[in-house]
Amino acid sequence: MAGRLNPPGIAARGYLLLSVMIGVLILSVFLLMAVPLWETEIRREREEELIFRARQYVGAIEMFTRKHNNLSPQNFEILVLEKFLRKPYKDPMTDHGRWDAVFQSVGVKKLLIVPADQMGRFLSRGVLVGVCSTSPDTGFREYRGREKYNEWAFYVGEKEDEEMPELEYAAGK
After folding, report:
1. How far apart are CA 40 and CA 46, in angstroms?
2. Longest Cα pair distance anywhere in the chain, in angstroms?
3. What's the start-to-end Cα distance of the chain, in Å?
4. Which tens digit of pLDDT belongs to each residue from 59-68?
5. Which of 5, 53, 121, 154 has the fewest CB atoms within 10 Å around its CB?
């Protein structure tokens, strides 16, 4: 009868294995609960980065305009070539990183949002004054009364305490 009993320690190892498995399960549940919080925090940081990068473009456009006797830049690349921007900043809200251009006609309050690759066609309709994200996603916060990232226009002369002017989207957006 003594041969049928488990040797000492085997039962203890079984309990240890069961305890480790329960611990891993509990840890997995907590990690799954934390993932949405991490994703939210990352997206909020990307929103802040969007605002920072867009304002870098606006500042570069202002400096270019001052240096070139109120002439507007023809594209974003010239801002980097003439060292008004350190590098071409990518739109952090999209995978491709491209920005839309913001144009303004003289005397008109409405802003024209144009895809960057079509800027040349619209240079006769207004002057380049800023950038806008291409992401149609809704932000966690509102920026000047607008919720979607592609409605967050950043442009020369904007006032943060005022509502965003009316936006017109070119090229069938």
Report:
1. 10
2. 103
3. 84
4. 999 999 999 9
5. 5
User: To 5 degrees, how large is the angle CA 20–CA 25–CA 26?
Assistant: 100
The contacts of residue 54 (CB under 8 Å, 6+ apart) are 99, 130, 131, 132, 133, 152, 154
* Tokens representing residue 156 in the block: 């020369």
Residues making up the chain, counted from first to last: 173
Residues 141 and 118: their CA atoms lie apart, in Å, by 30
Residues of the chain with pLDDT under 50: 1, 173
Each residue of 128-166: b (16+ CB within 10 Å) or e?
A: bbbbbbbbeeebeeebbebeebbbbbbbbebeeeeebee
Written as one letter, the residue type at 132 is C
Task: Please name which of 126, 128, 131, 150 lies closest in space to residue 139, comparing C-alpha atoms.
Answer: 150
Q: Cα(117)–Cα(115) distance, rounded to whole angstroms? A: 6
